[in-house]
Design a protein that fits this description.
22 helices; mainly alpha
Amino acid sequence: MLIAGIVFLVLLALGMPVAFGIGVAGLLFYLTTPGVPTSILPQNVVAASQSFTLLAIPLFIFAGNLMNRTGITERLVVLASSLTGHMYGSLGQVSTVLSTFMGGVSGSANADAAMQSRILGPEMTKRGYAKGYSAAVNGVTALITATIPPSMGLIIYGTVGEVSIGRLFAAGFVPGVMMMIALMITVRFTAKRRGYAPERDKPASLKEIGSAFGSSLWALGFPVLLLVGIRLGVFTPSESGAFACVYAIFVGVFVYKKLNLQAFLETLKDTARDIGIVMILVAMSGTIGYGIVYDRVPQSLSELFIGITSNPTVMLIIAVVLLIMCGMFIETTVIALLLTPILVPAVEAVGVDPVHFGLVMMTATTMGIMTPPVGIALYTTSQIMGTSPQDTARQSLPFLGAVIVVLLIMVLFPDLVLFVPDLVFGT
């Protein structure tokens, strides 16, 4: 397995697409390991994509694309602007609050970063915001999407690590709000230092906020309905994806009346592309997943970690450092697929709750979308805003620092993460 891992990293460094790199490394494992027949290679590729729980991923991708076509995003922008227009760096504050709202719509941090850069970016430039600063704000605030349900990362983590997705969804609310507050504070101080004045002299009236809230209610209620439905047993986490699609179509056709046949067909095309990208990674990971179990990598890593420390907090800090470093070089989905079955047994061995670790892991891992050299959102937001990735990365530092502070709070105070799932589902 060590040789396969080295080959994978080399192929990644040479620029080979991640899915093919995983597949080649997996094939090498089967060819070089005595007693492992190559005939089971295609079986593992197919088996990796046959999980009923994983069905939630394409369904939520479809639902998120449908909701983005229905006018929900525009209404959330109006609501966020009414709530934060009186603050320093008001458009940066809008980006932060909008990411919190969009977590229940898109489920993808990369998609949220790109969307916000396209929607808010031109207006931020028009109002005098530095392009690198705007790209950094729109990119880093999208990390909130990694925790607010229905996060794609949490679904993958729960499926691969055999952890309750319902509890993971419930656990995401508090860290998401914590990250929103931390980033809003950071925007306030950085914007004031740069002289980015508020849009309005005083806060919006209760009537204006109420009107914006009412028009956004269908979007805001979506993650709550998901959680309530799962808790009451109306549907399983996988079936909740189907509910999300029906909900999005209902809102688009009958409530906002923006989802016509042409928009629906365009959504299907976009969804097919997005699902293909994710599922080929899932399928290829099956080749490596078998090797991880066969070579007893989780057990060996658990013994290594316990040999270093048996303190849960120290163990989590070591894991966070490892995940942040991995996120700088490997795409988030790949980390969730490959490292979850390795790290979950290791942290459970020292008494860390797997739900708590899931939120810590996905928050730390998702930071990689805004860190060089492989940060997808870093390059996407920079390109949209017309600035260099180097400038965006430099402007991102205070915001990434705020995320790290939230991560440390999550590590040191696990009850903050577990409070909601324990309240909803019991201890």
